[in-house]
Amino acid sequence: MKNKFVKPILIGIPVVALLSFNQISVKPSYHSLSEIYEWSTGAPASKTGAPGENTCTQCHSGSTMSAVGVIITDFNNGLGNTYVPGQTYDITISGSGSTTNGFQMTSLNSSDAAAGDFIAGTNSELTNGGGKKYINHSASSGISSWTFEWTAPLAGEGDVTFYYAYNKSNNNGTNSGDEIFLGNFTVTEESSLSALNTQEKFSPEIIVSQGEVKLDYVLKSSKRVYLSVQTMEGKMAFYSDFGIMNSGRQISQLNIPSELSNGVYIVTLFIDNQGYSKKVFIQ
User: Fold this and answer.
1) CA within 20 to 30 Å of 47's CA: 35, 62, 88, 201, which one?
2) pTM for this model (two decimals)
3) Helix (H) or strand (E) holding 223
4) pLDDT given for residue 57 in this prediction
5) Among 99, 50, 91, CA closest to 72
6) CATH topology of domain 33-191
7) Chain centroid to CA 27: how far?
């Protein structure tokens, strides 16, 4: 019996189709609830609306609006938008009208490069991206105000602009319908000569305005400080003892008693036994 040759039969298999199925990866066009929850405890970098940056609307589908008159930013407790190189200042950002909020801020010089360093406070955190430094919320539910610190850059940096985005969420559990507010403010570097004069000056500034006395002075060592307000006849009208103050720059604000009559007074700041007086009109 002769051996028979059996010709194999080849069955066509759609290999290309199988390979295509294994290689296709569909990226969803929406953000998952887990991502939304994650961002409620901290936003990704580069969402402040600074030059060349995106805003929160890259992830939230709400609209962008100006922060002017809606979002409040406070630099150095309202004592002026100037900085001394290397010193640290408080910054507060706050809004209202929503139970869930968030923010992100960055500080840039005139070349749009990072300037200074943030120090996180309660419910805030730091992040970096694209060579820039950011601070944003680390908690958002029931929070509408954050206070943190910023350390100014070294001398020669010039003006520094803070760019920020503030998100008022509608708290619907998705990324839709939120309100995004964009804003910025600029702080000016004190010149080297001005900073030197500030560090060396002992004679204080006494400013009376809108029912307050503002004092700005520098102590070269710890000294006792107190303030007196007298009438032109020499009668004591108001007195405040600050106790022993540490060396360095001191800035104080005092409310003028409302019962003081309108008129001209002598305000004297005593540093140890040396007095500095100024004639002011109080109304």
Assistant:
1) 88
2) 0.55
3) strand 223-231
4) 58
5) 91
6) Immunoglobulin-like (2.60.40)
7) 35
* Tokens standing for residue 77: 């407790």
* Domain range list for the chain: 33-191, 201-282
| DSSP 8-state assignment for residue 70 | T
Cα–Cα separations (whole angstroms), residue 128 to 26, 105, 132, 177: 29, 11, 6, 27
201-282, superfamily in CATH?
Macroglobulin (MG2) domain (2.60.40.1930)
Q: How far is 187 from 79, CA to CA, in rounded Å?
A: 12
| Number of CB atoms found within 10 A of residue 279's CB | 10
Other CB atoms within a 10 A radius of the CB of residue 1 amount to 3
pLDDT at 204 over 70: yes
Judged by DSSP in three states, 179 sits in strand
At residue 180's C-alpha, the angle toward residues 176 and 186, to 5°, is 160
Q: Give how far Cα 1 sits from Cα of 5, 6, 7, 8, Å.
A: 12, 15, 18, 21
The two tokens of residue 22 are 């294994």
Candidate from 38-42, 187-191, 208-212 with smallest mean pLDDT: 38-42
Helix (H) or strand (E) holding 194: helix 192-200
Q: How many H helices and E strands in the chain?
A: 3, 18
Q: How far apart are CA 76 and CA 162, in angstroms?
A: 13
